[in-house]
Write a structure and sequence with these properties.
The complex is a heterodimer. By secondary structure, chain A is an all-alpha fold. Chain A is about 80% helix and about 0% strand. The chains are: A mainly alpha, B alpha+beta.
Chain lengths: ~230, ~375
């Protein structure tokens, strides 16, 4: 145990950064994730298939390609990146925020899938009943639909978090591997494997990464069970 | 309350073209399954948008396709009780009950939580989750939830259809109390003659998307030809009676009506209380002379008012017993043998044991007082 926790300051930085990046990526993905999942589950609009394809693209593209596309769009000179930097002072390239963006994008299809499935399983008759009781569509969504899909949102969020913890290709392509700024756990492990005598450090970080992912899974199980009990649906 | 509906709508191959006005306390939309009753009630609630037509409740236009008016469901203030209770599974019974109240402007709330909880007998269930309720309890909570949104009109879409007989008997008295004690008008969808006979003040009969008849319930139930084929034997006369006395020795109850005294199996109802009695046409025999040596206890003198020939093998005879119509369904052979014709004095004969809970809607007493 001592051996495991006896990390160098650089290693600690990588662990902290990874958790921060994954948490921010997860939290920032939830609102757009719900919105797009809802549109895909319920909406009838032109270009729905196209939207579905774009959302799923990071799942099928090589991560390096996704990272490079992010670099083109959100880099300093990219159209979106330049706009955001100029008007909002938000810079992604070679910052931890860029790592969070890359992780969020890579985990997004997993989150949308989970939420979409739970929206499709909601009994729309309950929503109709809420409507006859005087609830406007927005109220129906927030008092009936949202609580009923909460387990799906949590499942999607955990998937997104786990994906972010392990994201490597897109992150390293987009924001490189800067210790203390963009060097997440996978990047740090990769760096260790590239230097002589780095085996021990790589193994330590690997074990830590396994522990964090397991904790996330257990937390999601506990939450889901508690929600299930609250709803009494078994 | 006046409800006026005039709608044309198509759903797949099914066409509905219905127009009626209702002003009773409880208007039943009655017809076999597939006749369009549920579509009609969904149109009134705003769950379906009609292709063409107009719906008005108490002068408030809910739908008028010509004027381009379609009030969304949450602005109609029309309560709905569904066949499947549709309680929110993530809320307690209390939160379910209070859900609609939240969206009702304070000035328009006229239903009181305690009164509704008492009326429906659901006080002990308030902290439970819907998953822990029986079918009958769910339906009572669903009724309470709809009422507490203080609606202008309450729609009930076959609220008893998914329940067994015992549960139906459990809920019916609550619906009766609703009808009699609350000032809220009700539109009730049903395919059961027994339910309609017991609950309705007025009936709109539907068949294949069209209104075939409408009027007070006692008039409609005598028109056996209007009833679905399978339910025709359930039709008959509806008599408003009062409990005259209980006959302890034979465990019978004697009801008074203009047609005369009628003996039914013992009921648990105080003397003087009103009972709406349904006499099924298939249970009524006809005698042309005062019968003697007969086991049947109810012999009501009257005159043949009219005879309708059904499908050739059977006839429906309407007997006027001192101003009250009693229907009898007999074979064509009997009609010819007795030479029945309008104006002929006859006796309507009904066995006491042919009355059961579905005839009176009240619990029949077990064999004791």
């Amino acid at each position: 145990m001592n051996w495991l926790l006896d990390l160098t300051p650089d290693e600690w930085t990588a662990v902290r950064l990874s958790v921060k990046v994954a948490t921010v990526a997860m939290l920032a993905s939830v609102p757009p994730g719900i919105l797009i999942a809802y549109a895909l589950a319920r909406g009838r609009f032109w270009g729905k298939t196209l939207l579905n394809g774009i959302v799923h693209l990071p799942l099928v593209l090589p991560p390096v390609v996704t990272g490079y596309l992010l670099l083109l769009a959100f880099g300093r000179r990219g159209p979106v990146g330049a706009f955001l930097a100029e008007h909002f002072g938000i810079v992604f390239s070679f910052r931890w925020t860029g790592a969070a963006l890359a992780c969020g994008v890579m985990g997004f299809p997993l989150m949308v899938r989970a939420i979409r499935l739970s929206i499709e399983s909601v009994d729309r008759k309950l929503e109709a009943a809420a409507g006859t009781l005087g609830a406007s569509p927005l109220w129906v969504f927030s008092t009936v639909t949202l609580p009923l899909i909460l387990p799906g949102i949590i499942a999607g969020a955990i998937l997104s978090f786990a994906k972010a913890m392990g994201e490597f290709g897109a992150t390293i392509t987009f924001v490189s591997n800067i210790p203390g700024e963009t060097q997440t756990l996978p990047s740090a492990i990769y760096t260790f494997t590239q230097v002589p005598g780095g085996d021990e450090g790589a193994l330590r970080l690997t074990l830590i990464s396994i522990i964090i992912s397991m904790l996330a899974l257990v937390a999601s199980e506990v939450l889901a069970r508690r929600l299930g009990k609250r709803m009494d649906v078994e | 309350m006046t409800l006026s509906v005039d709608i044309r709508h198509r759903q797949g191959d099914f066409r509905i073209d219905a127009s009626f006005t209702g002003s009773g306390r409880l208007t039943a939309l009655f017809g076999p399954s597939g006749s369009g009753k549920s579509t009609l009630i969904n149109l009134i609630a705003g769950l379906i948008r009609p292709e063409e037509g107009r719906i008005e409740v108490d002068g408030k236009v809910l739908v008028d396709t010509k004027a381009g008016i379609f009030l969304p469901r949450h602005k109609r203030r029309i309560g709905m009780v569904f066949q499947d209770a549709r309680l929110f599974p993530h809320m307690s019974v209390r939160s379910n009950l209070l859900y609609g109240r939240w969206f009702t402007p304070a000035a328009e709330r006229y239903m009181d939580m305690d009164a509704i909880v008492n009326l429906l007998g659901i006080g002990a269930l308030l902290e439970r989750k819907p998953a822990r309720l029986s079918g009958g309890e769910k339906q009572r909570v669903a009724i309470g939830r709809a009422l507490l949104s203080s609606p202008r009109l309450l729609l009930m879409d076959e609220p008893l259809a998914s329940l067994d007989e015992a549960r139906k008997a459990e809920i019916m008295p609550y619906i009766e109390r609703l009808r009699d004690e609350m000032k809220i008008p009700i539109v009730y969808v049903s395919h059961s003659v027994a339910e309609v006979a017991r609950l309705a003040s007025d009936v709109v009969v539907l068949a294949q998307g069209k209104v075939t008849a409408s009027g007070p319930v006692s008039d409609i139930l005598q028109r056996l030809d209007l009833l679905p084929a399978g339910e025709r034997g359930e039709g008959g006369a509806l008599l408003e009676t009062v409990v005259l006395r209980h006959d302890a020795a034979f465990s019978m109850t004697v009801l008074g009506s203009p047609a005369g005294e009628i003996r039914v199996p013992g009921m648990n109802i105080p003397v003087g209380d009103p009972v709406r009695l349904r006499i099924r046409a298939r249970d009524v025999m006809i005698a042309t002379e005062p019968p003697s040596g007969l086991s049947a206890l109810n012999i009501l003198p009257g005159k043949v008012a009219s005879i309708a020939h059904g499908d050739g093998a059977e006839s429906e005879v309407c007997i006027d017993c001192n101003g009250v119509s009693v229907m009898s369904r007999i074979t064509e052979q009997s009609r010819q043998t007795l030479d029945l014709r309008p104006g002929l004095p006859v006796f309507a004969v009904v066995k006491t044991v042919s009355f059961d809970e579905t005839s009176t809607g009240k619990g029949m007493r077990e064999a004791h007082l």
